[in-house]
Amino acid sequence: MQKNKTSTGAQRVYAALRHAIITLEIDPGTPLEEERLCKEYKVSRTPVREALIRLAADGLVELEANRGARVAALQLVDVIDHYEAMDVFQPAIWHFATVRKNAADIASIKKAVGGFRNAIAREDAEAIVQSNYEAHCAIAKASHNRSLEKAYQQMLIDKLRVAQHAARDLTRDRGRILAARLSGALRILEQLVDVMDRGDAKNAQNLARDYNAHVREQIVAILSASLGNKVVLVPPDGRTRRTAVPTQSRLSEAAQRQGARRDS
Known about the structure:
This protein has helices at residues 2-22, 34-41, 45-57, 76-100, 103-122, 125-142, 146-168, 174-198, 201-227, 247-263; strands at residues 31-32, 61-64, 68-71, 230-233, 241-244. It has a 3-stranded antiparallel beta sheet. Strands 4-5 form a two-stranded antiparallel sheet. With 264 residues, it is mostly helical. The longest helix is centred in the last third of the chain and has 27 residues, at 201-227. α4 packs across α6, α4 (76-100) packs across α7 and α5 packs antiparallel against α8. The protein folds into 2 domains: 2-71, Winged helix-like DNA-binding domain superfamily/Winged helix DNA-binding domain (Arc Repressor Mutant, subunit A); 76-263, Four Helix Bundle (Hemerythrin (Met), subunit A) (Up-down Bundle), CATH 1.20.120.530. It is built from 10 helices and 5 strands.
């Protein structure tokens, strides 16, 4: 009975912290003190530690000997690396989803894309980010490759954090801005559904590359405007600092470099 209580407590702490980290209610680099978490969630140290270990496995928390836990950093290089990795993973996922999907998979993808469409129509910033994530989860599931799906799920969490970071610092019109920026992503996802229905794996891969290039361009534009010349960097000593970095040029150069690779 005690074990069940511990497991329930660990799941509750895990779910609450995961949501807070992904939505940036807790900033990247923030220390996670066990004593404070125990008081906040009214549990003992054991469920808190179990939750932190799970979050570390998800890549959302960093555990360091004699330093405790902290929210994983979200650095400029993480954004660049994320979209570069997506250039490799996304075409593979969309390929397998197209050739292995079943009727239930198509129904789930259509439902998720419909949610994304409705969120954009409502100009609901948080719903846009979340429904986009759910659409990609549905596509990953349709690949019917557990190893690829697991790796892709982790990348989708990174995508969610990047998108939330971009959305958080927008103006009060962030819903309108996100809707305008990601309407092109919606069109590509709608094309994907049609391509998947036809079983056209080659076009699915091409759409995946087009999608990643489009979203990268939009997020770069949003981050450049919202972050200005400041991003969070975590140096080797582990102390988070605000450091001046030419965000616009670094992100834009990275996007152009990756685009050149695709064309070569």
